[in-house]
Known about the structure:
Number of domains: 3
Strand content: 25-35%
Low-confidence stretches: none
Bound molecules: adenosine-5'-triphosphate, 1-O-pyrophosphono-5-O-phosphono-alpha-D-ribofuranose, magnesium ion
Distance between the termini: 28 Å
Number of strands: 15
Strand order of the largest sheet: 2-3-1-4-11-5
CATH architecture of the largest domain: 3-Layer(aba) Sandwich
CATH topology of the largest domain: D-Maltodextrin-Binding Protein, domain 2
CATH class of the largest domain: Alpha Beta
Mean pLDDT: 95
CATH superfamily of the largest domain: Periplasmic binding protein-like II
Shape: flat
Amino acid sequence: xxxKLAVQKGGRLHEDSIQLLKDCGISVKNGHNxxxxxxxxxxxxxxxxxxxxxxxxxEDAVAHIGIVxxxxxxxxxxxxxxxxxxxxxxxxxxxxxxxxxxxTNSTYLQGKKIATSYPFITQQFLKEKGIQAEIHEIxxxxxxxxxxxLADVVCDLVSSGSTLFMNGLKEVETILKSQAVLIKNKGLGxxxxxxxxxxxxxxxxxxxxKNNKYILLNAPNEALPKIFELLxxxxxxxxxxxxxxxxxxxxxxxxxxxxxEKIEKLKQAGAQGILVVPIEKMIM
Length: 284
Ligand SMILES: Nc1ncnc2c1ncn2[C@@H]1O[C@H](COP(=O)(O)OP(=O)(O)OP(=O)(O)O)[C@@H](O)[C@H]1O
Ligand SMILES: O=P(O)(O)OC[C@H]1O[C@H](OP(=O)(O)OP(=O)(O)O)[C@H](O)[C@@H]1O
Ligand SMILES: [Mg+2]
């Protein structure tokens, strides 16, 4: 019994997908042009595919699970379950217009010609807003469309915005925020579900660890109550006496997103010699 996983063959999600497996202790070798690989130390078979095909493969149970962007998942509109967001491949699907244009709201799009690789999502948005527009589907280099007279507007993926900028366009409306997600077939057997649960446990431990830091600091004992308030830790902070009397070392875990704010407050409360180290795995 193996779990079959579909990942992107190349492109934006490939490396992060393989790295995630690696962080989960699963090594997958994929040589050049190799489209299938078996993990060495987990009952996992990996298929390397165009991302567009992944939802269909998972719906059909050719692959039990897959890693794909939410943008592709929504566009393909297949019957699969989303299991877990994976925190990479973050981007948004937005309308963009030539930078000299004035766009106040979506009524601007009425009667316009829109170039996109996401005709289904774009059409849904227009329908919700009651707008009639012409959608011109193209599979790549969408940002070029206005400058060569193919369209008035584009609806495409944006991350840093540099592709839009380089093509004289400006982002005017975001219709979807996306990241890579783990999807699964709706009718998984119990053995595959068990393997998926095992994999998911590892993925969650890895992701939790990435979102947290281990913090060590020294503080005078009278500052400890204030410091405990700032550092609840996984259960409660670890406190060890320092060789110098009246001082302690405090160890705890801190969420990445509240990191800088907390560090300031800890310093104000009397913390010194603060060390922050990455956590490799975090099992709750
Ligand atoms: N600029 C970006 N920053 C971050 N994530 C992105 C960016 N562009 C795309 N993505 C995400 O990565 C996914 C794959 O993007 P990529 O450009 O590699 O797709 P593709 O060219 O369609 O590849 P394929 O050859 O597999 O069809 C997208 O569907 C999206 O979820
Ligand atoms: O806002 P930015 O950071 O510039 O990123 C946006 C660009 O990234 C993606 O294309 P990608 O570079 O993956 O090439 P592709 O269109 O050939 O897949 C997307 O289709 C945009 O063109
Ligand atoms: Mg694709």
